Protein 1
Amino acid sequence: MSTARRAHPLLQNGAGGDDGDDEREEEEEEDGDEEVEDEAAEDGDDEEEPRLKYQRLGGSVPAILSTDAAASIAVADRMVALGTHNGTLHILDFQGNQVKEIAAHTATINDISFDADGEYIGSCSDDGTVAISSLFTDEKLKFEYHRPMKAIALDPNYSRNYRRFATGGLAGQVLVLTKKTWGGYHKKVLRDGEGPIHSMKWRTDLLAWANDAGVKVHDMKTDRGIAFIERPKGIPRPEFLLPHLVWQDDTVLVIGWGTSVKIAAIRTDLSQGLNGIQRTIVAVGSEKYVDIVGSFQTSYHISGIAPFGDLLVVLAYIPDEDEKEKKFSASVTSRQGTAQRPEIHLVSWKNDEVTTDALPIHGYEHYKAKDYALAHAPFSGSSNAGGQWAAGDEPLYYIVSPKDIVVAKPRDAEDHIAWLLQHDCHEKALAAVEAGQGRTELLDEVGSRYLDHLIIERKYAEAAQRCPKLLRGSPSAWERWVFHFAHLRQLPVLVPYIPTENPQLSDTAYEVALVALTTNPSFHELLLTTVKNWPPALYSASPVISAIEPQLNSSSMTDTLKEALAELYVINSQYEKALSLYAELLKPEVFEFIEKYNLHDSVRDKVVNLMILDSKRTVHLLIQHRDIIPTYEVVDQLLHTDRNCDKRYFLHLYLHALFEIDIHAGKEFHDMQVELYADYEPRMLLPFLRTSQHYRLDKAYEIFAQRELVREQVFVLGRMGNAKEALSTIINKLENIEEAVEFVMDQHDDELWEELIRQCLQKPEMVGMLLEHTVGNLDPLYIVSLVPDGLEIPRLRDRLVKIVTDYRTETSLRNGCNDILKADCVNLLVKYYHEARRGVYMASMNEEVHGNRVDDGSSRASERSSSVRALDIKSRTRCGARCCLCFDPLPIQDISVIVFYCCHAYHLSCLEGGLDLMRSNSNQDSDNGSDDEDGSPSGESRMRCVLCTTAAA
């Protein structure tokens, strides 16, 4: 996958200002040549997001390189070592600040190496020396070889493994030096006679170096060679293009040489290589072997190589066409000053390019491929989930040129978001921030830039829709955008999304929003909805009312705006104004509104609108509050309204309801009411005519005559005293003899009966009907006697038979009823007589306490004593509450009393002799097997009043 080259602006750290101007001039010169190519690239493919970001190393570096030139670099866990052409070793922190300076050599430092702990540093130089120094003590070692030394590699366990290191140079020997126990160093030559040593890297027990023949891997633990990888064919000599070795991990060696890249995997068993490529080069007798798991050719010269997760970072030098043709002949040096910018290529093991970045290195046009170096810092691991590295985990890449050092590192989440914003991918940037990538504060920035972008694109509706998500709970941000939308005259699109709580804005913001909705009829519906939904406490209604009221009589006034104004009046406690608008708009809830705020007096001038809205409820309201709303005002409004409605029907409903409540309330309109009844409800005319006394009979008769209301005419004629004409109308027009008879009965005029008979005799059918309906009123024989001889009366025989039958039936019913009435009277009198003869036993106080009774014969009397005690003894009026035998007062002696319904009372002791006599008489009567006189069974004794029994005897 190929990508278009992009030139990255580098962040300046206080140095290189003049160089920046030079770069801009150079870029302007190249713009003309590259414009067409860039446009073609943009048209062909969308620009891909870079994977790396770049920054010039600042701190002490600009000052160091202002008087010297960088030659080599090495990176440890905690520091960076920079070697210069004058032989000085500068120890820097990761920000470029110098920590220590070591005057290790007198000529160019070609290579630098740290041990695994970062405590020792070794370097080699063209002056033929190798120097090893402790970074935290004064320990220093220096070795002289009298030939330029090009490579050095400290044993990773240098401090724990006898201070062992390896080195090589133009002498062509790979030397391994190990400190002896008793002092001095033991020197061992691993390889000799294959040309100068150009590069050397040590990882765990594996040492790899490159010479003119190729790359060799040696197992330092077993002291055996593992593999030899031949130098790629067709590449320039190493003095022009140096080989670059880097261990990706403990078992993978990456080789970049000329235009060739090879990835070698150190294995201990036969298994297929990575990426499906397997190539094995095994040294004789070796237990380990090497698989070439990746290999490809590039179109550029490799000036450095480093791992990047499962990808590779390649520092590319782009040769001119002349350089390619001359194969780096001796004339190449004469072409200095025309070199291109170096590039960073991020590629896979199959040479699929992910990104390509051109670097504006200071003075790049004067440099050759071997003037650049690439080193990478160790990193925690591959934490690039989702394509982004976590802070602190990302690797660092140092691109070194003689006068410039650029640091490259993977772009983090914030860089990703910034790139998305730069390329107008605001939606993706927002999603990235919400997913937790980057600082929380970025959400405000992303949201603001997103809204700005939408506003510039004039996507106001979309911007408004995004506001709740982007502005979240910030009142100041919301208010700022409310006023910004208002300035753009686009506030109506934002109103539906303005929050009313969490956060709550200032009242001015809400008022501005509502006023903005009053200007255009297309916004009035939204205004009404907003006024109903927003809590009234959020804003003052007065500014909004002031904005609407001038439009009341203009063409821009709509019903929706009127309703919104009514709602605002309610919020502002202007209930009467609100009622006027509700009535004008015919809102059904106006009746509840009237009751809620007690606005009955304000209804007086709104009768017609309310009638149109709901006549039934309006009439009920008017009748219920007729003391506040006079009848004449209601009638006047209904009669003189210019509204398109059935005002006479409304008037009829009102007057009819008023008449049913109070027949005198609207008496001055009864003449009108007669006509209204005739038009809308004729069935109610007769009840009205019978009840009312406040209408003109002649006018009513004219109305009934015009509308041919016969029964009403009859009633009016009767009220006018023209009973005969009324009777004639009933007979001739209604031909209803029953109504005629009823009319005559109501008039109580005997002459009308004669007139009824006279008129009926003119019609034979009427005579028959008259005979049917006069039973109980006229003698049928009298009517028959008046019938002229020879007059044929239809069904006369049947009607006479019916008259006789009805008469006999009526007579029989009357006689039966009389017999039943007489029998009932006798039975009731007999029952009353027997009940009156019974006595009521009233026990004394002592007997009541102990529950004693006189005897069994008086048990029934005792059952009634409780009820009689509540009564006033009637005998007090006759005998002065005295015993009728001894004449002593009843209350004096504490003995029981017997009271009879004949109003006589006796002491129980006085009555005992008479009681025995009564019992003997009862026994004699029982011998005859008969019942007592009162219907009681024989043998049951009854007490009798002595006085009444004696008198009866």
Protein 2
Amino acid sequence: MPTILLLLTLLGVLYSHGHGMSREEKRKFRNQVVEMFDHAYQNYMDHAYPADELMPLTCRGRVRGLEPSRGDVDDALGKFSLTLIDTLDTLVLLNKTTEFEAAVRKVLSDVTLDNDIVVSVFETNIRVLGGLLGGHSMALMLKERGEHMQWYQDELLHMAKDLGLRLLPAFNTSSGLPYPRVNLKHGVWGPDSRTGTETDTCTACAGTIILEFAALSRYTGDPVFEAHARRAMDFLWEKRQRNSNLVGTTINIHSGEWVRRDSGVGAGIDSYYEYLLKAYILLGDDMFLQRFNIHYASIMKYISQPPLLLDVHIHKPLLPARTWMDSLLAFFPGLQVLKGDIRPAIETHEMLYQVTKKHNFLPEAFTTDFRVHWAQHPLRPEFAESTYFLYKATGDPYYLEAGRTILDNLNRFARVPCGFAAMKDVRTGSHEDRMDSFFLAEMFKYLFLLFAEDEELLFDVEDYVFTTEAHFLPLSLSTAPHSSSIPLNKTSNEELDDSNFDWTCPNTRLLFPDPAFPRNLREPIRSAVDRSCPRPAPYREPGMGRPPLRAQDFMANNPEHLELLRRMGVSLIHLKDGRVQLVQHPSQAVSTVAAEDGVRFMQEMMELSSQQQKEQLPPRAIQIVSHPFFGRVVLTAGPAQFGTDLSKSSTGVRGFVTIAEPYSGCSEITNAEYVQGHIALLQRGQCMFAEKARHIQKAGAIGGIVIDDNEGSSSDTAPLFQMAGDGRSTDDITLPLLFLFHKEGNILLEALKEYREVEVLLSDKARDRAAIFKGKPLPGSLIEGSVDVHEAEGDCTTEATTPTSFEPVGQSQTSTLELDESAHEEAAPSQEDVGPAAKDISATVDVGPQEETPCPADGGRSKTERDSEKGEESERDKHSGSRSVDQLLADWREDLEAFQQMERDEL
């Protein structure tokens, strides 16, 4: 005991010498968390309640059926005031007991569950059933204290049981695995249910039931809920791959066959592992711990490659299944803390932190070299969750700084007048009209706990287990009466292995007597992320005494470039459709060295095309900077192939908006005196985009915004347009022109209608609001001291001035490449296709079609299109040099299927 006291005393001294955060600083950040919560919660109550969610850009509630469908994402909405129920126990944690009491009364008086609507069993369980049970546990705690809720008679529990009974029909399968969806009113069978035909579910969907259902059984004394949840968990365990002890991502609920055999710790599987360990913690059943430890050993053997966590195939666990990671795996370091395996938790968290600092938020998916794979960020709380658990485990103030980074980024980039808006694209800072209920249920809980002192809490959180939605279930439920009919440890003949219990409940304080130890683990990972975008040293062309012509620098109208091409044996052929074909004849080069340089140039063009398929003219940002928006609202805009390139502007273009007359912009502007010096708003249609740009430029406009005339169109569901020229030179157009779909354009028009004077900033990405307000020059990146624009985007490339993409069109005596801006699913030829210098190589350069072409940037695609294409491109970028087209297409199809399943899993 004296030794332990000495260690703890020494640890406190080491933390106090300039490394920690003072109590006053922590209190300031804790109060900031409360203020941010109030901003989000009050806007939901003022503008959205009783709807399920708040739409923070348009300041109204999201009611299912009244808004354009978002596919499976909407299955979380059941017309049961989702956000209010999900937030109940957060109110208590933040010491808002009066608001909690009022919220409970609203739930009891206003919310109905008898709705003819199909909902996700998984989402409804963790958000609504978990929210009701968490609210019930808080109500009991407050009632016992004698200050609040004295009138409470288990009303939330009665509502929870009603909901549990409505979810039970989903478990009526031969396997015991639940259907993924259920109709709250009609169950799963019959013509009225509109469900019951599904065959597949995700592992997490079936394996994230036990905490809520067991708690419901223990609270009510009805064993049926816990029994069904245990049966589903037992079936998943029995269906694990016996050699690898891993589970797949998607399973057939009738046959038990694995539909998707890739295995990881992210989307589709994540909370299955979480619930195995937490079921042991809550229920005290050793078998859950035994199963978790067996799975965990396999995860650390096959999936964990610190600091990375990479998916593998369950039958071939040494074979990687993908080259990217999704943001949901950010919960795993927190789970490792509960397990007691702190070292890999520190390493993975540090990797996630560095990716967060590179992109301001964790992208929905990112590659193993830390580039953006899917650019969205729906304000997920998993990284904050792991940050809190690591701080609890280590006491290292480094994690308080990580929490402050989360707070700063939320306030600077996600905060809008009506709440907090999800990020549509972390690279541009554009927003999505979305604030999920988990943002209030989880994010503010973990951030508040991170900065709060124990004496500032109304109750001891150590007496509760957090569900995957961060709802509080009391550990006392482990001793609550439950029916002996619940099978305990009857599904496996395996005996417990004591070795699997090591470090299950460690005293984590004693793991780190030296505070420098975690820092030593973090430093190499920080360097690894920083090195992920190396800048190659410029090389000089052998034999020519000057730098060679690089593909990204090539311009078809530059005489010097044409001379360099001629020396390398590359000639140009101007095609009738306005494109330029590049053809290399090695025999016509001035020397063997020059011919080899020509081959390298053509290979660079191929590599450039692969990069530019996702990078060509990425989505731009329109940031509303005037009152009351102050830069908080950012709209995703499509770029133009002509005019000012905003990616090369350090300040962007800032000005007040004015509606041009005529609105179409297809003839001379009649209100030029108002357009002059302003940014003109135009309607799409009736003429070419370049013609609109010329008319407003002649009227003196400094920029233009074209708004789609197709009512209801949105970048959420339609491809974002890249506006093309009109078939002739557009060098005379010098102002920037951006495109907005109808939904985003209406936000701008409504703001103009209400406030009369609306000032916007046109740029490549949202800019630092502090600099905007102070009138300082706008920085070229989102955060002061951050990496440059391209590194902030995580793309590790230089902006190219050459055309956009290649398409292999045949290989006989020559290899032909076409740069076609409308192509989306091409694969670049392999290195073997280029051949030695003896072969001729031909490439066609597209200088711009004469009609609108879809912009392949992800900011404007429908979620499925956008992300499936990114999956294809990421795989292609890595392997295009050595793999066949058939292999690439197979990988693309696998990634597409993976994303579509992840959509169903609520990614």
Protein 3
Amino acid sequence: MRSLGVLFSCAWAAVAIRVDWPVKKSCETPGDIVIGGLMMVHEREDTVVCGPVMPQGGIQAVETMLYTLDIINKRSKWLTIGAHILDDCDKDTYGLEMAVDFIKGSISNLDDAEPTCNKSQVKKVISGVVGAASSVTSVQVANLLRLFKIPQVSYFSTSPELSNKQRFEYFTRTIPSDHHQVQAMVELVRRLGWSYVSIVYEESNYGIKAFEELEVLLAKYDICIAVKEKLVKDSGVAEETVYDNIILKLQTKPRAKGVIIFGSDQEVAGLMKAVRRCNAVGTFTWIGSDGWSARDLVSSGNEPEVEGTLSVQPQANPVAGFEEYFLSLTVENNKRNPWFVEFWEDHFKCRYPDSSPTPYNIRFVRECSDKDKLTKDDIVFEKQLQFVSDAVMAFAVALQNMHRDLCGNFKGICSRMNPTKGPELLRYLRSVSFEGLSGDKFRFDNNGDGPARYNIIHFKQTTPGIYQWVTVGQYIEGELHLNDSEIFFNTGTLLPPESVCSLPCSQGQAKKYVEGERCCWHCFNCSQYHVLDSEDETQCIHCPAGTLPDANQKLCKPLPEVYLRVESGWAIGAMSLSLAGIIATLFVVTVFARHNNTPIVKAAGRELSYVLLSGILLCYSITFALVIRPTNLVCGIQRFGAGFCFTVVYAALFTKTNRISRIFKAGKRTTKRPSFISPRSQLIICSFLISFQVIINILWMIVSPPNAIHYHPTREDNLLVCSSYIDASYMIAFAYPILLIIVCTVYAVLTRNIPEAFNESKHIGFTMYTTCIIWLAFVPLYFATGNHMPLRITSMSVTISLSASVTVICLFSPKLYIILIKPERNVRQSMMQSKRSALKSGTTASVMVGALPVAHPIVTSESLMRLHQERTSCSEIKTISGQLTKYTQTSPKHQTEKNAVNCNST
């Protein structure tokens, strides 16, 4: 028996040697008009021209075309359509060779002077061609058919290149272009959150064109390509190392878990076997193209390798009635399909009686029997047969519409359609609109492509050990709809694997890109006062002064403005002091106004007193300008007012002290009245002194206009201040008033020995001493509080108010005492008597701030002038002169002689 088996094997081997392969066959059906069909009945093979029979995309596609023609011819009353179907073995060169048959009839019709011997040969005129399946073959065939103006409708060719109607004018397809498929795949990648993927693409028109579009779209959405590898067409089946090298290259970028594979089923099947050989099962998640997904050739036997795949498939529904039709076929009842016997043998692994030997059926020992029947359980149907049926239907509808317009009710082909003109048929073809056998409505788009409708299918384990392709979403006209709960990845979870080169940087971190990588980076922290640049994520930018980074270090948020607010305790305290001062000053003004013509008011110098009180009111009022929110106008008022109010006060005091000094100096020399001591002269002098401050302020504002600015002494400070506050320039406003204070103080010192009866100079002196002490305390406080603006402004306003208060108390309280409490002394006679008694007694009355005189009325320089003006007796003048000599250390002899001369002259 063993020897017989060996002899049997040898006999079959001998038969195999004599096999004539491939055998050119054609499937033909009669009809008034014949359309061609170019199908990939056999698989592509490296070692021979044609490989084994292809059950799904081959035999089932042929039968779908025949089945659709049967239904069309049953429905048609006026026209029948026949077929002439050839096999291209999924090879572009062989397919082009087969396509030459389609143009033989057209060539004979081009030449009316054809030799008589050729006229006896009947040649079929092909009106159009359905096919090819492969984009590579369709490109070759389309270039040939275009020369003879034969319309072509492909059902599986998806290359975007074929949408170019300038190159492929007569090419049309029922399946959508890969341009839409690429968009759907990129949307799928984005939905999964991937930013770093690898691409494996077939080295063919189908793969290369898709890869070019993938590159553009992925870059548009900042998705980087980690590895890009080519699947060399027609070489993978023979060379396992080609596929192994691709998987090894993918493993060099382990963070790129997502891999897009754009190829055909045979190449991808070899790649999946390499995944197992390289121990890469579960390492990657595949995004598949329509060329290989949902194909048993890829998934059968490679289930763990393919598991988790998400694929984009043109949306197709089953062709109504086709499954029942196909399952009813046998070799005996399907003689019109010359390749069906090969399918039968391959499916049942048997040798059909009297069948022609092929390189593949010679291996089968068992002879096929009548018990072999096709059943639904052992047949896997191609899911995209709708596109084959729609391609046949498109030709049928176009021919019927053309027949209706050109032949009317003529049954069969009229002369106007014999032969059919390609350009005219193409025009009818592009405008068809019908409902196919799948129940879907169909029409071509502007590029002659099918509508962009896709199913998102997923290969997963539905039950233990059972794997299936399951529809989990759709991509319709640019919108992706995905049922995430139905997707189960090979990672063992519902969550998609992470396919990113580098994780996103944390808040407040910038990127430093790895050289040569757009999606790979290292993260580094932005420093304390920096934020991430919104336009350049590799840069940290410094927040400008007055701003600080937010918690996420993304934005520079402005710091709140710090200024002395009216409702704050500092401001309320300063304003309360000022308001009390204003009330007190207004009270003094009111008292003086009501007793304007009394001796005490006149003796105090009414005009200068009112000027002095006005200045004091300004001093108190300036506080309200200091505590409100700084603006340019407010800053101008502050700058002008702070110095001006003091100038008014101390200009008046200077005028007073100067007048007293001049009167007593003149009294030592002569009884002649000194010049410029009248009220009018005093006002002019005072105004002249004030005008200096006005000129200084005007020049200062011209040179340096007042502005409200934001001052940042530290990075975390944002002070809203007037520009003069940030340095010593504000002291310009006080320079002139300080000079007046110094001069007044000097005069106060010089007139300290004036007889006590003339004690107004002492009050002025005490005022100036106290003022100097206040300002000596203020200046260091002002510069020490530069970063505490509320305190600085408050100290300034309080200092101004205190200076004004000292002036009010020291200069005006003694006069108010006389006016309000001792009105009996506010008479001219009393004052004159007191003058004389005071001069004769030589007693000293101490006058202190807050301790008002009791025994003696106030006698001012005004009283002294009245003594001169009333021509006091010589004896009195001598007494006065003696007193003056005592206090001024003047020689008695010299002074006596001088007084005698003056008396004599009088």
